[in-house]
Specification:
The chain has about 210 residues and is an alpha/beta fold. Helix content is about 30%, strand content about 25%. Strands 1, 2, 3, 4, 5, 6, 7 and 8 form an eight-stranded mixed beta sheet that branches.
């Protein structure tokens, strides 16, 4: 049985697109970058820790598979996680304005046999953003809970001048890489089957 270790409704929506039955298990993992840790190592570690925490809760049953994922926005080597408040979100967007940044999304698939991993790296270029546009977007509330302070599938879609990589990875779960890991684990994906899955959530909701 596949379990998604995530509170994110976006990841639930994306995983559902692969047509694989799964349930949802919410986990709380501290997302703190260690001193000297590269952005790539950081995002992979957090995804691993999410999958491991959920796997431990499920009792290490032989047929259990747990999918963990983490997404971070990186500009000039600095990791932009989720904004602490509206002012933080506005600061992030002002920093990203007119600049090219990377979005890193790691996927970790944990089973009794070990862990399979993938890392999606997407380059995103924002057009210059007027302060009034940033203020209006922040006032919408959409930046909160989003890495880098924006949701590419929402109002921030108009900010993107260019994207090279995985659109779904920027949303929070790169579907190409995720499908590959599931196939390696013996799970056949059925794209287009939509919402045919079990989303019973164990623990706190997103």
């Amino acid at each position: 049985m596949l379990h998604l270790a995530s509170k994110s409704p976006r990841r639930r929506e994306l995983l559902a697109r692969l047509g694989v039955p799964f349930s949802v298990l919410a986990v709380d993992i501290p997302e703190v970058r260690a001193a000297g840790e590269t952005p790539e190592d950081y995002v992979v570690r957090v995804a691993d820790e999410k999958a491991a925490a959920a796997f431990g809760q499920l009792g290490h049953a032989g047929d259990v598979l747990v999918l963990g994922s983490d997404t971070e926005v990186v500009l000039d080597g600095e990791v932009f996680g989720k904004p602490a408040d509206a002012a933080d979100a506005a600061w992030m967007l002002a920093r990203l304005s007119g600049r090219e940044h990377r979005v890193l999304t790691a996927v970790s698939l944990r089973s009794a046999g070990g862990t399979l991993r993938a890392l999606s790296v997407t380059t995103v270029e924002f057009a210059p953003l007027a302060p009034a546009l940033i203020d209006a977007y922040v006032a919408s509330g959409e930046p909160m809970g989003k890495a880098g302070g924006y949701a590419i599938q929402g109002g921030a879609e108009v900010f993107v001048a260019r994207l090279s990589g995985s659109y779904s990875g920027v949303m929070g779960l790169p579907l190409f890489e995720t499908a590959r890991l599931l196939r390696e684990a013996g799970i056949g994906v059925r794209p287009g089957m939509g919402m045919q899955h079990n989303t019973q959530q164990q623990g706190a909701g997103a």
